[in-house]
Amino acid sequence: MNDMRPIERATALDDTKISAKGVNVHYGAAHALKDVSVDIGDRLVTAFIGPSGCGKSTFLRCLNRMNDTIPSARVTGRIEIDGQDIYDRRVDPVQLRAKVGMVFQKPNPFPKSIYDNVAYGPKIHGLARSRADLDVIVEKALRRAALWTEAKDRLQSPGTGLSGGQQQRLCIARAVATEPEVLLMDEPCSALDPIATAQVEELIDELRQSYSVVIVTHSMQQAARVSQRTAFFHLGNLVEYGETGQIFTNPRDPRTESYISGRIG
Ligand SMILES: Nc1ncnc2c1ncn2[C@@H]1O[C@H](COP(=O)(O)OP(=O)(O)OP(=O)(O)O)[C@@H](O)[C@H]1O
After folding, report:
1. Does the residue 4 lie in any domain?
2. To bridge 172 with a disulfide, which of 79, 145, 180, 242 should be the other Cys (CB 3.0-4.6 Å)?
3. What is the mean pLDDT of residues 1-27?
């Protein structure tokens, strides 16, 4: 994979999938995210970068209402996916999270078989009418996550028995099994070795054909390799957002420049 992809079309020409306006997050009295507004494109990988504690994961969790599960968190502002306000009272967060899948930093397979890890979401969301349907869904998700060849002869073995990189691909299979439209990834490679990282990065590139992918990463090399758009956060502010090539070669804000040149963070 190239280290830096060619600069693509301007952000304004993206098909917007997610639109955030004036989003603030407080944890108790602490103001963690400050008035963030951004449009995130469809069928693109968007990277969130910035120093530790700048609010990347906080903002990522706003996009599928994972902050609802943190009692001290208070989210204000508006976030729309396909024009629908995801914080509307009529939106069921469980349904929302099927549409907006998430992969975490540490692979976290359920203590179940490989098959059941993938089948769980489609089962609870009623996506399969029969066992045969479910078999098809599981195979498709494992293929999408580039794990089918390694897993097909051990579907009934525990997911926790896979290697770290395989477990992360299993978690990706689990996330894509419910046919999400957006995939959120919070440092998905931080627990992986370079080979597994390369496999997951290739997979992210594949997945963007079908989804809007948002990835939080500490690795600027990774952001440059996998993303077409990059958002730089600093102290809870979204400082700069644009084409990945522009952010890394010609940042407009001195804070972005300092970060990418290694002076802050
Ligand atoms: N559950 C929580 N309760 C209270 N404060 C929190 C919680 N999660 C995050 N914070 C605070 O919110 C701020 C932003 O944290 P966040 O995890 O979003 O940053 P980040 O940019 O993802 O950091 P890192 O790169 O270290 O993961 C930090 O000051 C952090 O301490």
Report:
1. no
2. 145
3. 70
Ligand 1 and 52: CB distance under 6 A: yes
Q: What is the number of structural domains in the chain?
A: 1
Q: Cβ(231) to ligand 1 under 6 A?
A: no
Residue nearest (by alpha carbon) to ligand 1 atom 9? 58
Domain of residue 238, residue span: 14-260
pTM of the predicted structure, to 2 decimals: 0.91
Rounded Cα distance, 59 and 48, in Å = 9
Q: What is the pLDDT of residue 4?
A: 41
Average pLDDT over residues 169-186: 94
Assess if residue 265 is contained within a domain: no
Residue 204 covered by a domain: yes
Average pLDDT over residues 67-86: 96
Q: Does the CB atom of residue 184 touch ligand 1 within 6 A?
A: no
Asked if the model's pLDDT at residue 265 lies above 90, the reply is: no
Residue 42: which CATH number?
3.40.50.300
